[in-house]
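Justification of computing resources. Each target in the renewal requires a structure prediction run like the one illustrated here; the chain below, 239 residues long, is used simply to show the kind of job we budget for.
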Amino acid sequence: MTETQNKSKEKTYFSGKMKLAELIDINYNLLGLLPRLGVNLGLGAQSVEAVCADCSLDVDTFLLICNVYTYDEYIPSSETLARCSVQDIVKYLHSSHDYYLSTALVTLAESIDSLLESCREKQKAIIWKFFTDYKTEVAGHFEYEEKTLFPYVESLLRGENTEGFSIAQFEEHHSNIEEKLDDLKNIVMMYLPSVCDNTKIGNVLFFIYYLEQDLARHTRIEDNILVPIVSRIEDNGRQ
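Resulting structure tokens:
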């Protein structure tokens, strides 16, 4: 796709002149995203530009993240990436890590615990081991980014010596942590006994689908936005 085509497509996406309430009306899943961006839900009557100004949030970065979370086909142009605040992107990623570990996975664990009340101990042990192993993997994934990637980006922005690491190294080893949720989803959907409560099964599956989708978009922010922006900063520093 050419840059001209990108610019043309982007005109149909969210803009700073829209009210925040309009964005939510188009994609209500943004309700779970906004607190991670530092935006209060009571600001819906204001324009996106006004909300971002009140929250000290870069409007281009806010719109980019909301577009990624709403439109699967959204591809930001190089000009859009150049206008974005890498600090706000890192802040969002950090906040999302906290949300996944402290809220999302806790909520999923509580739903699974309630679902398994009527299951045999062997079934409980299998599912809990799978979930615990997954949670450990997610925590390790985030810890690497918190202790290695984010400090590197901050040092790069300060113009400090960053030899020994590059964004290409992160990109090479970056994995999609949402994939194993598909296995958990299949276990719940196909192998739990019929005595399990249908409402509880539905609640667990709904949240797994939501979390799987949310994590996929989180990964897109890292791979398709943070990586090219930081790569450009690296290139500029070498010139």
